């Protein structure tokens, strides 16, 4: 696979993950976290719900950073092997 194609696929995946994570965070912050017919939830429960929506996004960002670095290490390594550097 060419490195340009790999970069394009990577950035499309980043865009899809960003849109999905923003939708998850929006749903956690906008919609009330309550059972139908139940009492409103406490502030602590609401904060926990938001935290559980944000934490996976942070982990996903770390995975994307490590993936980006690994892609570029592979690019430099293949260039060295091919004698281009």
Written description of the protein model:
The chain has 2 helices and no strands. By secondary structure, it is an all-alpha fold. α1 packs antiparallel against α2. The protein is elongated. The two termini are 20 Å apart.
What tags apply to this protein structure?
single chain, 85 residues, mainly alpha, elongated
Number of helices: 2
- Beta strand %: under 5%
How does the overall form come out from the CA principal axes? Answer: elongated
Assign the structural class, choosing from mainly alpha, mainly beta, alpha/beta, alpha+beta, or little secondary structure. mainly alpha
Distance N terminus to C terminus? Answer: 20 Å
Say what oligomer this is: single chain
Along the chain, the helix and strand elements come as HH
Number of domains: 1
Topology record:
Layout: H1 3-30, H2 43-81
Report a brief summary of the structure.
The protein is mainly α and 85 residues long. The protein is built from two helices and no strands. The mean pLDDT is 83.
